[in-house]
Design goal:
This protein is mostly helical. The chain contains 9 helices and no strands. The longest helix is centred in the N-terminal third of the chain and has 31 residues. The radius of gyration is 23 Å and the shape is elongated. It starts with a helix and ends in a 23-residue tail after the last helix.
Length: 227
Amino acid sequence: MSATGRFLRNNGLTLAFGTAFLLALAGQAAAGQADLNNQLTAAGLQPLGLARYLTSSQFAVDVTENWQSEYLQFFLYIFGTVWLLQRGSPESKELDKAGTESQREQKIGPHATDASPAWARTGGLRLALFSRSLGLIMALFFLGSWTSQSITGWSAYNAEQLRDLQAPVTWGQYVTSADFWNRTLQNWQSELLAVASMAILSVYLRQRGSPESKPVGAAHTSTGIEG
């Protein structure tokens, strides 16, 4: 197999979903521009070109409000599954392994191998950070995208206020407004429902060959095993 073939095989999951993300983002941009221009035309205002729409607060808030809910989902899931269990689900650890587990189980410190990452073989702050790095980066992505959503949403909201000949609001007023939390909670509830559904449905249903499913012949009560 060529070097290119190996690269595509070894990174197929990331490449496929990354490409799908870019296509969906492009589709959202086209549909969002058309929708906004329909609203502007109906109000007797000048429609926006694509370049101007892509740099507008309207486009930014629509993107970031979805990103923040996705990263919230992963942040809560990553940290929650350290302690929370679901009997029979491959999304859960085995029932006797709740918690951060021992150094031997985690292959850190004196139990690290030659193939272990360098920070897994150390101690102190570096090990503490590395051993929580996935959850922490998801938390940072969530906070960053939530902040971006609040700022761009505030700008978009005030643009609508001015079009309607109403006074703009401060950022503090916006993030405590019904408009902001209506947008935010619509996304949060859908993401949390999806996680809960996956956790319980994977107890009884199977997808042959998927690491998100138990082996087809595994008992419903088998916990923490993947196909």
